[in-house]
Amino acid sequence: MVSSDKQLTIPERERMHHHIVECSFETTVIHSNHTILYINEAGAEFFGGNKEQLIGANVVEVFTEEYRDFIVQRIQRGQEDKQVGKLVETAVYRMDGKVVEVELFCHPVIYGETEAMQSTIRDITTKKQMERELNKVMMPIVPVKEGIVILPLVGEIDASRSKYLKENFCANFSNDKVKHLIIDVSGIYAMTKEVIELMNKFVKMLVLMGITTICTGIRPEIAWNIVNTNSKQYMLSIPTMATVKEAIDYLE
């Protein structure tokens, strides 16, 4: 134990910091001015390299291209505001080029005498894969007649499921067989304004692809959320009907 009257030297401070982060089983990276100053053994194993290869590298380039601007802004805010960054989901490159989905948590630290950021990276690949598999089960495409399919939505439509719609479902409609899509939301009890906005974009993508979209089963409380969004004029222009049967009869 160090007595209170003894001031630690800079190398001693760094060694103490190293000891603390090495005790973590999660990837921990200390960086300043975008340069990696230190990474623990767990982190080196996660990225598939060794510490010598990673220390001195540009931390921003660890992240995939679509996240790099966001990471730069996040680091800048952390350095300026000296506040803990919120937990976010992003993606990084391993040294073999493999992309891994991760959660990122960071906060400002003093490394020796250097103002730095300490980032903790957690692999969530398995978690995200399970979410995608769950989305497939909870968002089945049901063909009912030639050229007509139904997308029944059940449960709560959160940002993750809305993102899945946007990124994956349009690929299923990129052929001449699907002409009409009925989105049935009778099993939906909650939908935030942000999610409604994402749903609007999804429907607009289908319209641009030449697919007619009809929404059925809108509950009163969801209708109230819709008319209170900024995009209410566009949303209300989408044909809506009470039931799936009514929509099928109309399309026939």
From TrEMBL:
<dbReference type="InterPro" id="IPR035965">
    <property type="entry name" value="PAS-like_dom_sf"/>
</dbReference>
<dbReference type="Pfam" id="PF13426">
    <property type="entry name" value="PAS_9"/>
</dbReference>
<feature type="domain" description="STAS">
    <location>
        <begin position="138"/>
        <end position="251"/>
    </location>
</feature>
<dbReference type="InterPro" id="IPR002645">
    <property type="entry name" value="STAS_dom"/>
</dbReference>
<dbReference type="InterPro" id="IPR051932">
    <property type="entry name" value="Bact_StressResp_Reg"/>
</dbReference>
<dbReference type="InterPro" id="IPR036513">
    <property type="entry name" value="STAS_dom_sf"/>
</dbReference>
<protein>
    <submittedName>
        <fullName>PAS domain S-box protein</fullName>
    </submittedName>
</protein>
<dbReference type="Pfam" id="PF01740">
    <property type="entry name" value="STAS"/>
</dbReference>
<dbReference type="InterPro" id="IPR000014">
    <property type="entry name" value="PAS"/>
</dbReference>
<feature type="domain" description="PAS">
    <location>
        <begin position="29"/>
        <end position="82"/>
    </location>
</feature>
<dbReference type="InterPro" id="IPR000700">
    <property type="entry name" value="PAS-assoc_C"/>
</dbReference>
<feature type="domain" description="PAC">
    <location>
        <begin position="86"/>
        <end position="136"/>
    </location>
</feature>
